Amino acid sequence: MEIEFLTVMLTVITMVFLAVPAFILEKCHCLPQGATKVFSSFMLFACQPFLTFMSFQRTDYDPSVLINMLITAGLAFAAHLVMVGLVLLLFAGKKNDVRIRVVRFASVFGNCGFFGLPFLKSLFDTGEMLIYAAVFVAVYNFLSWTVGIWLITGDKSYVRVKKAFINPPFLALCVSLPLFIILKQPISQIGEAGTFVNDLFVKLSSSFNLLADMTTPLSMSIVGIRLAQMNFKQLFANGWVYCSSVLKLVVFPLIAFGLMLLFPSVSVEVKCCVFFSCAMPTATQTLLFSEQYGGDPFTASPAVLLNTCLCILTIPLMSLLIAYL
User: Fold this and answer.
1) Of 13-27, 208-222, 283-297, minimum mean pLDDT range
2) Nearest C-alpha neighbor of 76 from the set 84, 65, 66, 87
3) How many whole angstroms separate alpha carbon 293 and alpha carbon 296?
4) Is 222 within 8 Å of 39 (Cβ atoms)?
5) CB-based contacts of 120: which residues, under 8 Å, 6+ apart?
6) How far lies 54's CA from each of 39, 134, 169, 189, 241, in Å?
7) Is 74 helix (H, G, I), strand (E, B) or coil?
8) How far apart are CA 80 and CA 96, in angstroms?
9) Burial class (CB in 10 A: 0-12, 13-18, 19+), 252
10) Which residues contact 238 (CB under 8 A, 6 or more apart)?
């Protein structure tokens, strides 16, 4: 699997460019207050579940895919837990500092769903890759609602195991995977071509795709609005934000790369999925958790935005390591 540096860079740039219209509209005061909340809710409860569902609709069933899904889950768990151990070691004894707690979360949990899934779809456009990416997102959701909340609060009583399983992406996976195994083919292939049944599922599949494809524009629009609302001095003046950027955009993908080297027999699709998912910028969930669980939003918001801006350079640079996988 050959991946060109410029292809990766153009893929990232075109995705980040989607933030520009929202940035301009917010600067011109053309958007109502609370637009980001509306965008976030629609993206989380409507678009991302369909993005997960349609990830399983791009290839026929193969038993090897299930094995690779389990491998992906194991590697995703391992990469996250190694990174968690690293940030705990680096910031030992500083959990009472709200800024440090935000940096810990921002350094581990990336935008593998709203940014990562569409990125992999645009770069590779293969059915298997998107299935593995959906599995990675499921692991991310489980860990963010458990280990992640503990990192950002320093208090295990805030951990929400129920939400780790009852969330739109995970529920979508619970529907998509059994259907994938039972049907063994995309829903658009149900029935004979030209029949009413086939036409119905083809059109349903097309509608689901439209909702799935809205995930990236909405996600980047939120980034654009938040960027327009921020004082640029605040964005670049916080040293802890740079710390989270180095850890998330450089150290974490390098850990994933090292982990991939330990398992040379793993398929290249799984390796690329895990590697690029770990290289994604800090998740917008960092800001949401900071506001909800007493973190520092003045560190969280710049961390998300600066990570997203810097990933234009870091993701293509990290992609140069793919040749060694």
Assistant:
1) 283-297
2) 84
3) 9
4) yes
5) 129, 130, 133, 272, 273, 276, 277
6) 20, 10, 12, 14, 35
7) helix
8) 22
9) buried
10) 298, 299, 302
194: number of Cβ within 10 Å: 7
Compute φ and ψ for 282, nearest 5 degrees: -55, 140
Residue 2's pLDDT band (cuts 50, 70, 90): low
CA distance 260 to 263: 5
Q: How far apart are CA 19 and CA 219, in angstroms?
A: 8
For the chain, the average pLDDT equals 88
Q: Write out the two tokens for 284.
A: 């917008």
Cβ-proximal residues to 135 (8 Å cutoff; 6+ apart), any chain: 69, 72, 73, 76, 173
The whole-model pTM stands at 0.90
205, with CB counted inside 10 A (0-12, 13-18, 19+), is middle
3-state secondary structure of 206: helix
SS3 assignment, position 56:
coil
